[in-house]
Write a structure and sequence with these properties.
By secondary structure, the chain is mostly helical. The protein is built from six helices and no strands.
Length: about 240
């Protein structure tokens, strides 16, 4: 019958501590990689989405201004292409459902307005309110972009707290816990071995006390996980 001896406990601790530290090291390494890559991810997605909404807003202003210029049609067509390009850019950098919904709403609203710009005259007052409506949709998209950035920051802060907790546990709790456990077990081994040594000395000095000394040795070995075999379980 297998028993959990003090040797088993020490071997288990010797095996489990490096495993815990190894797993924690892998998690922390992935966390450091993530935070190192985060500036690039922010620039690629969130900042890209913000640049796209700013570009749409600038194109709307230039189209509104171009209506009154001698070469207004060329200005409108050029800015229309730029606006479409910014819409595609915003769509590729969107990371939330809210952003995608607002981008689709902008695209659907913009097409008839641009048709009216190409066909209408410079003095057509009905186009101005429609451009303002489109501009409001772009403003809503900018708010959605800021919300997406806030979500990224919140997730990063949450993960940072998790990594800090892992670092504290593996850097403080595990080593010190292992030290305290080993210190206690070493003290137990020391006490029991001293008692066993004293019992052996008593046996050699006073043979008449051999029975009591053997009982003491047996008790100390049992405390260390080596009890006397049960004769009922003997083969």
């Amino acid at each position: 019958m297998s028993r959990i001896t003090i040797v088993t406990k020490l071997r288990f601790l010797a095996a489990i501590a490096p495993v815990v530290l190894l797993i924690a090291s892998m998690i922390l390494a992935s966390g450091f990689y993530l935070f190192g890559a985060m500036p690039g991810l922010l620039q690629e997605n969130q900042f890209g989405a913000m640049r796209a909404s700013d570009g749409m807003e600038a194109a709307i202003y230039k189209m509104d201004w171009g209506r009154t210029q001698p070469d207004g049609m060329e200005i409108i067509k050029g800015q229309e292409r730029r606006f479409a390009s910014w819409v595609d850019s915003a769509r590729s950098h969107a990371t939330t459902r809210d952003q995608l919904d607002k981008i689709e709403q902008i695209a659907e609203t913009a097409n008839p307005i641009f048709d009216a710009l190409r066909k209408g005259s410079a003095g057509d007052d009905s186009i101005e309110p429609r451009l303002r409506e489109l501009q409001n949709l772009v403003t809503d998209l900018s708010a959605a972009n800021e919300s997406a950035l806030s979500q990224v920051v919140t997730r990063a802060q949450s993960r940072a707290r998790i990594f800090i907790a892992i670092a504290l546990i593996t850097g403080i709790v595990v080593p010190w816990g292992a030290f305290i456990f080993l210190f206690q077990q070493a003290g137990l081994i020391n006490r029991n071995l001293r008692e066993a040594r004293r019992a052996v000395e008593e046996m050699s000095e006073a043979p008449s006390r051999s029975a009591q000394s053997l009982k003491t040795i047996d008790e100390k070995l049992a405390e260390l996980g080596f009890p006397k075999p049960n004769p009922m379980l003997a083969e």
